[in-house]
Design goal:
alpha+beta, 3-stranded antiparallel beta sheet
């Protein structure tokens, strides 16, 4: 495991995936983030996740937030 980069980009996080209808918009699939997001919990699709942009806009209180507290390095393929 390497040290978390600065800035920790959602595009490089293991929990992010592109939105199905929009490749430029990322969705966060971290369970801690999704547990507090009514849109992710109430979605018909379990692959929807939370908006990475919305989560990163939050400064306090938030699970991941602006600092990317829950950021995890993507596995090498």
């Amino acid at each position: 495991m390497t040290e978390k980069p600065f800035p920790a980009l959602c595009a490089d996080c293991a929990h992010s995936k592109p939105e199905t209808e929009s490749a430029w918009n990322l969705r966060c699939h971290n369970p801690k983030v999704n547990a507090k997001d009514p849109w992710a919990l109430g979605s018909i699709s379990s692959s929807n996740g939370s908006s990475c942009i919305t989560e990163r806009e939050r400064k306090w209180p938030s699970e991941c937030g602006m600092r990317g507290n829950l950021w995890a390095e993507k596995a090498m393929s």
